[in-house]
Amino acid sequence: MACLDTTLLRIGGAPTYVLTDNAKTVTVEHIAGIPVRHPQMVAAGWHYGCQVVSCVPYDPESKGGAEATVRIAKADLVPTSANLLAAYDTVAELTDACLTWCDAVNSRSHRATGLIPASRLDIERTTLHVLPIEPLALALGEERRTAPSASTRCATRPRRAIPVPRCGAGSSARNSPSPCTKSVDLSEIWRHQLSTPGVPQIIDEHYPDHPDGRSIHQPRLQPGSEAEIAFVGIGPGAGRWLKEAGPAGATRIRAKMARAVELATVLGNAKVDQALGLAATAGRFADDDLLSILGHIADSKPAGEVVRADEAHSVQNGTAGWQALVQLRPVPRELTAD
């Protein structure tokens, strides 16, 4: 249906009927020689204003017409030893080749009519049915609701991940020889390589809060009470302190959080947040560790006065002390002047 929708859009209208082969997606079965249409294809015909019909087996007029496109594809588009075409690395390259081929054959005179197909289509387009504004949902694929695990699946295919912001949103998934396409509001959001059942397609960048697939070991901050909100509001250092203090088994965490909020009110959030970040890095969660780190920060020189080793400065001790020793050392007798 996606291919038919694209074709009708390029033509600019819908004909009276669309002829196709007897695939199971079109004809469910034959009863006494009468084809039973797939209900979704019947709905598609009503939607586009045309009838989807299938060819009659062993009938040159209908069966031959349906297979003519297959012969054209094999001769001009599919890489074979006859046409010397190289293999397509991506589906996009095949699509571009189809567009190039269509432009070439539709702009030259037809052998039977002697007319240019593109020019004749301008005349025939006036008799075609007007296309609906929106395509049939079936043309996009199977509609699926994205699970809370930021993944979805279509039919019996393996589960595939999609970006986290799409969780809970309606989406459609389409399986084809090309990578599976996930779409929301008719816009493509991701393509996955086809896989087999039991081999899910999971992309790490779709889970920014779960680095390396670790979800249980990487909890997110979710402050609920006023005390928790006030503590986390000090800064990112407070969040790191809480994430490290909990797994480390620190005691009286809530009392220490309240003490940190009081210190932030007096000294400012920046200094307390810096001290909490240092405490988290060093693993210091005792009762007086925060005050000790704050005192060390207050006694330390500002960052601009700290000497750092580079090409112009060295942190090694100088030689001034050795000069004093040389001055105190007696001069050898043999070196004195007469």
Compact summary:
The chain contains eleven helices and ten strands. The chain has 338 residues and is α+β, with helices and mostly antiparallel strands.
Shape estimate: elongated
For the residues shown, what is the average pLDDT? Answer: 76
Domain tally: 3
Spatial order of the strands forming the largest sheet: 5-8-9-10
- Give the second-level CATH assignment, the architecture of the largest domain: 2-Layer Sandwich
Low-confidence stretches: 164-171, 175-186
CATH class of the largest domain: Alpha Beta
In N-to-C order, the SSE pattern is: HEEEHEHHHEEEEEEHHHHHH
- Strand runs, count: 10
Helix content: 25-40%
Structural class: alpha+beta
Q: How large a portion of the residues is in β-strands, by DSSP E? A: 5-15%
How large, in whole angstroms, is the Cα Rg? Answer: 37 Å
Largest sheet: 4 strands, antiparallel
CATH fold field value of the largest domain: Nucleotidyltransferase, domain 5
| Annotation field: number of helices | 11
- How far the N terminus sits from the C terminus, by CA atoms, comes to 115 Å
Task: Give me the secondary-structure topology.
Elements: H1 2-11, E1 17-20, E2 27-31, E3 34-37, H2 39-48, E4 51-54, H3 60-76, H4 91-106, H5 117-124, E5 142-145, E6 151-152, E7 160-161, E8 170-174, E9 180-184, E10 187-192, H6 226-232, H7 236-245, H8 253-267, H9 269-282, H10 289-299, H11 320-328
Parallel strand pairs: 1-4
Antiparallel strand pairs: 2-3, 5-8, 6-7, 8-9, 9-10
Helix pairs in contact: 6-8, 7-9, 8-9, 9-10
